[in-house]
Write a structure and sequence with these properties.
The structure holds two protein chains of two kinds.
Chain A: H1 8-16, E1 20-29, E2 35-41, E3 53-58, E4 62-71, E5 74-83, E6 102-104, E7 121-124, E8 129-134
Parallel strand pairs in A: 1-8
Antiparallel strand pairs in A: 1-4, 2-3, 2-5, 5-6, 5-7
Chain B: H1 5-13, H2 30-39, E1 53-57, E2 59-62, E3 70-79, E4 81-82, E5 85-86, E6 94-103, E7 106-113, H3 117-125, E8 154-158, E9 161-165, E10 172-174, E11 181-184, E12 201-202, E13 208-214, E14 219-225, E15 231-238, E16 249-250, E17 254-259, E18 262-264, H4 272-275, E19 276-278, E20 284-290, E21 295-302, E22 306-316, E23 319-327, H5 331-340, E24 351-359, E25 364-372, E26 374-378, E27 390-396, E28 404-411, E29 417-421, E30 426-428, E31 432-435, E32 442-450, E33 455-462, E34 472-475, E35 485-490
Antiparallel strand pairs in B: 1-7, 2-34, 3-6, 3-35, 4-5, 6-7, 8-9, 9-10, 10-11, 12-13, 13-14, 14-15, 16-17, 17-20, 18-19, 20-21, 22-23, 23-24, 24-25, 26-27, 27-28, 28-29, 30-32, 31-32, 32-33, 33-34
Classes of the chains: A mainly beta, B mainly beta.
């Protein structure tokens, strides 16, 4: 099971293993329905296709924290969404508009579609990083 | 599995059709409007309201017809300012739905703000937070089209329900009695937030047709709702370069759209309006869709025009005849933006209401001009999609600047125009024809703003004789915000 709930212990042990942890505070949850699912991507080519790290947290109204562990130091873009109906996918309508809350690192937004990797790019050093994303 | 797939599947395919994100708020139109108002009193029509609700009894002059009984629902952008900021376009304001109730020769008025997601968030923050049609504001993230749904364009009673409609997202259901907001109307889960235009066409049997344009993915949504209010069909058509599409028409066999020639500039940080680049050298496309299988049967072309509104359409052998109010180009959109910042253009944008004949065999479009300087064409509900003999419009008040100044009936056989002008102190809103219950003709009913007394008046005309002026007027003790469109429900 690679999906981890947030435990401070994991943070500590992950640090010891010389891999970086990314702590993500997700704001703007209107309800406690379902879970927040998160993914990290390390290149434009793999963005929204092949994540290099994932995480999950139980939703609660307001904000939640999640950690994506064991990332190599480097640049990443994070995508996440609140899977309100727990069907493990970001629901969308007939033309592809998302109908569940979602967000990207740097609160990046695209025009008629998702943002680019570049727009959502963050740096994660060896010592790890903390970011905040607001659901849209 | 595939644990990693759950995110990518959903995120990679999705997100294709959201409204654009926008940068910081644009120019401050708030002060400019106030300065302009001092020079142009007619701009009081764009004052909007800060009230959540308006209610009052109208005082009647003349004799309000006893048999004219029902509710006239209307909608328009009413909340145009917040926290010292003003929207840059009239289309941006939050919708307020109005109910004019008529019974026993008396008239009352109730209006309430539609409590959309956007309105509730902005009211709580006392600040404009979300982008509008013509204003680039990005203080809160936009999830999908309904994040910015202003529910501000029309109101429609259908199958016992009442809807406030926008064009970029869902219809919003309201309580028909109290006008309290019930919430977004979702006909099916996968139709959440899908554009549902403000100009659905309801046939005499109650069948409802609507469109929705999705420029992000070049799709046109076709909606078919049964007379009982349940979804019959929804269909997607691929339409290249689809942009702003406001209205359409139906005949007994067809759905017809005109596509003004725009290209979309997707630069970040600009409003949806600013993305629209007029392409006057290109043709206006005419799409003819078969109602039976919802497929595109014909694409015709005619010279570039801007169009918002249609009157009606009907099949005529191998042709389709329809009426529409046409503009030479898209300047009318800029003219409305100018008015929001207190600027009245010396030369208004000319409009003409024309009848178009679509010759489906030859693939040709013929235009016959019916009436210059007119807008808001309507026909009687019983004639939607059927051959109509008369078309009702508003007429512009060319002498006194912006806003409509009167009403007109165009007799399509012979071209006779019957009209009434209210005079310089009035701004006239859309008037709709209403069938008399005794079957002896129509009334024409609609509001007008009395600028001198700052009061809104509901007019009723004998539709066969507009020139004689209103049969009666129902005067409110206040000015109600100007609406765009509405529909009557008889009781």
């Amino acid at each position: 099971m690679h999906i981890r709930h947030i435990l401070p212990l994991i943070l500590l042990t992950a640090g010891a293993a010389q891999a970086a942890d990314l702590t993500i505070t997700v704001n703007g949850l209107a309800s406690a329905e379902g879970k927040v699912l998160l993914a990290a991507y390390d290149s434009a080519d793999t963005f929204l296709k092949r994540p290099v790290g994932i995480s999950m947290a139980d939703a609660q109204a307001g904000s939640v924290k999640a950690v994506i562990s064991n990332l190599k130091a480097g640049d990443y873009a994070i995508s996440l969404y609140q899977d309100k109906n727990a069907n493990k996918k970001l629901d969308s309508n007939l033309v592809g508009m998302p109908t569940e809350p979602y967000g990207f690192s740097r609160d990046a937004a695209g025009s008629f579609g998702p943002p680019s990797f570049e727009q959502a790019r963050i740096s994660v050093p060896d010592s790890g990083a903390e970011i905040t994303v607001t659901l849209r | 599995m595939q644990r990693r797939d759950f995110l990518l599947k959903s995120l990679a395919g999705g997100l294709a059709a959201c409204l654009p994100a926008s940068a910081l708020a644009g120019a401050d139109t708030y002060q400019a409007y106030r300065a302009g108002l001092a020079r142009h009193p007619r701009l009081a029509m764009l004052a909007g309201t800060q009230n959540e609700m308006l209610a009052g009894e109208a005082s009647i002059s003349g004799s309000w017809p006893q048999a004219l009984a029902g509710v006239f629902y209307r909608n328009g952008p009413a909340r145009l300012e917040r926290g010292g900021e003003r929207y840059e376009h009239w289309f941006d304001g939050d919708g307020m739905v109005h109910a004019w109730r008529m019974a026993h020769g008396r008239v009352s008025h109730l209006a309430r703000m539609v409590r959309t997601h956007k309105y509730r968030e902005e009211a709580a923050a006392d600040q404009l937070l979300y982008p509008g049609f013509g204003t680039a504001i990005a203080r809160r993230p936009v999830g999908n089209n309904d994040s910015v749904n202003a529910a501000n364009t029309s109101a429609l009673p259908h199958a016992g329900k009442l809807y406030a409609m926008w064009e970029g997202g869902s219809a919003t259901e309201l309580d028909p009695q109290t006008l309290a907001t019930r919430g977004l109307k979702t006909w099916r889960d996968d139709l959440t937030a899908l554009p549902f235009s403000a100009h659905p066409k309801v046939e005499p049997d109650g069948t409802l047709w609507n469109i929705g344009a999705v420029p992000g993915v070049n799709k046109l949504v076709l909606w078919h709702i049964r007379p009982d209010g349940n979804l019959a069909r929804v269909q997607l058509l691929n339409v290249a370069d689809i942009a702003l599409v406001h209205d359409f028409v139906v005949t007994e066999r067809h759905i017809v759209l005109l596509l003004p020639p725009f290209s979309l500039n997707r630069a970040p940080g600009i409003s949806y309006l600013a993305m629209h680049q007029w392409q006057g050298q290109r043709a206006m496309r005419v799409l003819v869709i078969d109602k039976a299988d919802l497929t595109l049967k014909h694409t015709l072309e005619m010279p570039a025009r801007m169009v918002f509104h249609f009157g009606n359409a009907f099949d005529d052998g191998d042709s389709i005849r329809l009426d529409a109010t046409l503009y030479q180009d898209d300047q009318v959109l800029q003219e409305m933006a100018a008015a929001m910042r207190g600027v009245v253009w010396d030369k208004g944008v000319p409009s003409v209401t024309s009848q178009l004949t679509l010759d489906l065999r030859r693939g040709q479009v013929r235009e016959e001009r019916l009436l210059d300087a007119s807008e808001f064409p309507r026909v009687a509900d019983a004639l939607v999609g059927r051959r109509h003999g008369a078309l009702f419009t508003l007429i512009e008040d060319k002498q006194h600047g912006m806003g409509m100044g009167g009403v007109a009936r165009i007799d399509l056989d012979g071209g006779k125009i019957d009209r009434f002008a209210f005079g310089p102190d009035w701004v006239v809103e859309e008037h709709v024809p209403i069938a008399r219950p005794d079957g002896r003709g129509l009334w024409l009913v609609g509001p007008a703003l009395d600028l001198r007394r700052r009061q809104t008046v509901l007019n009723v005309f004998d539709a066969a004789n507009l020139a004689q002026g209103p049969l009666a007027q129902a005067r409110l003790p206040y000015a109600a915000p100007l609406c765009f469109h509405g529909n009557f429900q008889s009781t």
